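Researcher: Go.
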Amino acid sequence: MKQILIKNAYIVSMNKKREIYNNGSILIENDLIKAIGKVEKELLSEEIEIIDAKGKIVLPGLVNTHVHLSQQLGRGIADDVDLLTWLRERVWPYESNFDYESSLISSTACCVEMIKSGVTTFLEAGGQFVEAMAEAVKITGLRAALSKSVMDDGIGLPEKWIKTADEELKVQRELYDKYNNTADGRIRIWFGLRTIFNNSDELIVKTKKIADELNTGIHMHIAEIAEENDYVKLNRGNSTVEHLHKLGALGPNLLAVHTVWLTDREIDLFRLYDVKVSHNPAAAMKVVLGFARIPEMLEKGLNVSIGTDGAPSNNRMDMMREMYLTSLIHKGRTLNPKAVPAEQVLEMATINGAKCALLENEIGSLEIGKKADLIILNPNTIHSLPLHDPIANIVYTMSSENVESTMCNGKWLMKDREVLVLNERELIEKLNRKSKDIKNKANIVLPNRFPVIDII
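Model: Structure:
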């Protein structure tokens, strides 16, 4: 029996009452929370690790509900371009030159960046080497729902990615059978639908059926750009959401990512079918998708979470920064200073994210019997003090720099800013080498933004 006691902390539980334990303690036994608030001495074993967290904040681990592990090596290859150029001329050529090793390095690097910004659970939007993603999750100790990037339709696809609906479903079912509920239960396998641009009606309908049968999730980019709805109306008769409704694809296990271009009726359809939403503010602004109507969705009771998206569309896998952006952009869009307040943003990054992951009974809040997924924030930095309003400071002043320690499943992944699961310096060396190799294979040439003079 392994025990860890964190004491004297400001514990933000995110339980149903949203209770905060000032000068509180949390007892972890193996991978579960055994006690919280006041911990009685008789619960403690002789062999126990004790952490004095006086002056520090303990939170549930953050949940990043939309990330592309395989895009980490492509950070910086697609800046300041429109979405279709981003996709067809930069990211797809880059990713289509991946092999297992490339995906493993990319996935591992992305996981480490998330650990350092307080993420303990993430939902992967889809890559081609799910086996490598699973290996990265095993190595780094995170919790994840992994998906394959699934496409059976559309123009511009690399030849090696062209598959039929049945071929894509067969591969995903094999991945589910092999990897679901592995790595001490930390890995779940979901079914992927990349976008309606690249998914046939046959694939969408069959994916919904098998995901329901297996009681697992579906990860899909939905209503991402205005042109998407125009395309679907022209080719299938209605907008993306209305068409998915017609196909019977809406449901509580569907994670709708971006959802920038929704009508009032479509928001109501999401509420009716309990569709989950992943909001990605940085990516939406950087790739110029638009501003999702998040305050309206929250007001109607939709479960909205936060995601970073991938490195080429956001450039930072930093959920602390993403929380900050989430509140700011909607105040600016609505001209309402009360829109998406700090406490609601924190809900989106924790318990709402857990609901999107279909894991709200296991993670997302610090409660007895739940998994020991948590982070320790150190607010004692010049950019975070004074601490008049701790919840507001978490959202508005803190950054990944304040994430001091990260724990998942009762194990320290990072402690006192030191990553414990691997050698970070060796990983950086591999990342630099492999990213250049893939860029050369993909024949991606980026113009210099200013004149470069090589000094010999």
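Model: The chain has a mean pLDDT of 95.
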